[in-house]
Amino acid sequence: MSESITNGQVWDPFGTLRRVLWIGGGQWAGKSTVARTLAGRYGLTAYHYDYHDARGHNDRRIARRVRLGHSTDDPDGETTWVNTTPQDMAAETLAGFPVRFEWALDDLRALFSGRPIIAEGWGLRPELVAPIVDSPRQMVVMVPTEAFRDRQSRELARAGSVGHDLSDPARAQRNRLERDRLVAEDAVRSARRLGIRVIEVDGSRDTDAIADIVAGHFRCYLPR
Predict the structure, then answer these.
(1) Separation of alpha carbons 211 and 205, rounded Å
(2) Lowest mean pLDDT among 28-32, 52-56, 84-88
(3) Rounded to whole angstroms, how far apart are CA atoms 224 and 159?
(4) In whole numbers, what is the pLDDT of the chain averaged over residues?
């Protein structure tokens, strides 16, 4: 359970968190693009988890490593991508999500908007979001099919490699994609257990069509 939830009550000083609309799920499903599309259509405030987690949270990540007695340096690329199994990579990622979610909640608590906030990112896990929303209709989980994930890895520059000078780039990429598949599968299991809608993205619909589906799901929360 999130550290900011006590006796079923979430610390939400401005009432922001309970009004957030959440898009979680797997990597390469188009979550960011759909969130930006809906923000433009409805005048929402968009929060992109990956951007803040990779940049704004780094000081907190380092401070936590110090408290735990770990090195403040990131693991080297060989260890992370080549010499670790996808199963271990996925387990480590899933174990880290609750702490990283707390940092995202702090970001969101600081926001105040007259219109809804739409937050997207793979670290916005169903089991973490469910305790702080009034209804499972405030969340969707988007996941790519295996074929669409492979297509994204070929066509998206940022998905095509892990971005390091490695001894075996092909193995590193295979490990990364398999990790992403395992993490996405876990999100689907969690969502279905909690009654949260899963949207499978196979590339047959364009961004606007997927955004229409998500908007229809959120319709009672969107500005008219």
Answers:
(1) 10
(2) 52-56
(3) 36
(4) 91
